[in-house]
Amino acid sequence: MVIHENHFFEIIKNEGKIYLQTRQPGFMLKDFETILRQNPRIKLTNFALLKEGLNEVTDTPVEIGKWLPSIVIEISRDKMSASLFVYETAEYIKENVQSIQKKVQKLLAEDNITYGILNVKLESIVTAKATLIAQGTPPVKGEDSQITYLELPERKPVIREDGKADYYDMNFIYEIEEGAWLGEKIHAQPGIPGINIYGESIPAPLGRDLPLNYDKKSAYEVEEEGKTVLRSKISGVVEEHQGMVSVNQHLPIDGDVGIETGNIEFNGSVSIKGTVQPGFSVVANGDISIEHPEGVSGAKLIKSLYGDIFIRGGIFGLGETLVEAAGDIFVKHVNDAHLVAGQNLNIGFYSLGSNLTAHSILVDERKGKIIGGTAIAKSTIVSAFTGNRLERPTELIINSINRAQSLEVIQYKASLLKSMHEDMVQLEAQIERILPVIHTLTPRQLAALELTKQKLASNKETAQNLDREIKQLMNDLRKVSKAEIHVTKEAYPGTYIQIGKKSTVLTSITNGRFLIENGELNV
Q1: Confidence of residue 59 (pLDDT cuts 50, 70, 90)
Q2: Residue of higher predicted confidence among 501 and 165
Q3: Strands of 81-86's sheet, edge to edge?
Q4: Do residues 89 and 127 lie in contact, with contact meaning Cβ atoms separated by under 8 Å?
Q5: Helix count (H) and strand count (E) of the chain?
Q6: Which backbone phi and psi does 313 adopt, to 5 degrees?
Q7: What Rg, from alpha-carbon coordinates, does the chain have?
């Protein structure tokens, strides 16, 4: 069947294919576009043969394309939508709306499309352009689980000046009884199923189940009124470190740590109403609180392996005292002592002749002083005054975290975490396959199932720890970019300032934020 002809060529349709029979060469390729627009059912499949055929007389017709159906409905891979294509001219479409409508209905029925059929204005359809004719309803993912924890008082020291006395107070020890509420999880909710264009139900993904982060040795989960509730296994002190809730055994000491008590080593938190006498030590896994308003004098060692330390009064170290905490240290003032904090070192009034090491060293920015000694931080040092008018040597040093090494550690831990998640998915799938037939298992198979459950629980705990470590490392990296020494009032001559490899000694009174700008120290 001849579709088009002129004195240059014939376009022939035969069994769904389009052929070109050239009579005379020389027809312009750009003019062929007009013919295609007049015959939108022609689809070119071989442009090279068309170009060659227009310039050479051929003995036999050359296949250059195919003949498209008048109307086509294409269904998406996910069966959630269908698109209508009409391969007719705009004039034809406007003149044959009713017949096209009947054909569309017939094709929808043949394809079993029954849901989400749209009311399309056929007269406005553009030739060969996709028009949405049916749209399914996508499933709606369920809400993620919602977690709430016991809200602990903020650990922030309050400096109050009341006439003759200065007070350095804060909420530090939070005691609870066995079985006390520590938090709860509202379970992930089921989603709303979707429907595809065939009317078939599409399952909705369940909301993401988030874990409660807690110390398994001191707390437990229990189902209550449709929620997972976190409760304390013991009476003790509630603590939260790196996002994990725990309850530590609590050792209260009404008086001093000294000859009557001996040195204290305790697997939990310690609160001391009195002081730590010269030469004595307190080492605890949890938090340590020393409440005596006069602080400590000459104590040998005060150390928290995993928690924070609060000393209401000051420290008179006499060159002997070491105070060390994995988390924060809060102290009113410090004289001739060595303090090491894994996180922040908070000093209420002054540091005199002491060696301070922490992630950040924060001395009261209104009146706080660092006079003599060395302050070494990874991120920030803040004080109102540094050094004194006698130009006492005072060192303020920022030893920034090595970004490249930290990124390598993060990437390594992230790869471990990914591998662990993959293992957990396999273990969960294995357990889910067995649960429907658990009643048919032999004692040996039940024991193997229990081992699988234990391995899954262990992997989850390890994964949570890895996730916390990665987040802490990333948080440390973010703080590195803000590394600075901030002296709000006066930094006296003799103050040594170092950030990274850049350093200087002040020769005049100044103040401000000292940091690296354009590769140099801005002093």
Answers
A1: confident
A2: 501
A3: 71-75, 81-86, 131-135
A4: yes
A5: 6, 39
A6: -90, -155
A7: 38
Pair 250, 272: CB distance under 8 Å: no
Supply the angle between the helices 443-480 and 403-434 in degrees, to the nearest 10.
160
**How many whole angstroms separate alpha carbon 286 and alpha carbon 325?**
9
d(Cα 510, Cα 485) in Å, to the nearest integer?
Answer: 13
Query: Phi then psi for 443, rounded to 5 degrees?
Result: -55, -35
Strand partners for 348 = none
Q: Which residues pair with 326 in a beta bridge?
A: none
* DSSP tag of 333: E
Q: How far apart are CA 428 and CA 424, in angstroms?
A: 6
Token pair, residue 500, equals 């990274």
How far apart CA 434 and CA 403 sit, in angstroms, is 46
DSSP string, 356-369: EEEEEEEE-TTT-E
For residue 161, pLDDT beyond 80: no
Sheet holding 219-224, edge to edge: 146-149, 181-186, 227-232, 219-224
Query: Full-prediction pTM beyond 0.85?
Result: no
**Euclidean distance between the first and the last CA atom of the chain, given in angstroms as a whole number:** 89
Instruction: Compute the distance between CA of residue 523 and CA of residue 515 in angstroms, rounded to an integer.
Output: 8
For residue 251, what are the contacts with CB-CB under 8 A and spacing of at least 6? 264, 266, 268, 269, 270, 271, 284
Residue 510 dihedral angles phi and psi, to the nearest 5°: -150, 180
Distance CA(13)–CA(2), nearest Å, equals 6
Would you state the torsion angle of the CA atoms of residues 13, 15, 16, 21, taken in this order, to the nearest 10 degrees?
-30
The arithmetic mean of pLDDT across residues 315-319, rounded, is 94
pLDDT score of 375 more than 60: yes
Q: Which of 318, 297, 320, 311 is nearest to 349 (CA)?
A: 311
d(CA 408, CA 401): 13
Residue 19, token pair as written in the block: 């052929």
**What is the C-alpha to C-alpha distance for residues 311 and 335, in angstroms, rounded to an integer?**
13
CA nearest to 251, candidates 234, 231, 268, 263: 268
Residues 63-93: pLDDT tens digits?
999 999 999 999 999 999 999 999 999 899 9
Residue 53, amino acid: G
| CB 4, CB 11: distance < 8 Å | yes
Inform me whether the pLDDT recorded for 421 exceeds 80. yes
Concatenated DSSP letters of 457-519: HHHHHHHHHHHHHHHHHHHHHHHHTT-EEEEEEEE-TTEEEEETTEEEE--S-EEEEE-EETT
Contact call for residues 120 and 133 (beta carbons, < 8 A): yes
Using DSSP, state whether 435 is helix, strand or coil: helix
Q: Read off the pLDDT of residues 259-277 as tens digits, 9 standing for 90 and up.
A: 999 999 998 899 999 999 9
pLDDT higher for 168 or 135? 135
How far apart, in whole angstroms, are the C-alpha atoms of residue 349 and residue 370?
A: 9
Determine the pLDDT at residue 163: 46
d(CA 355, CA 351): 9
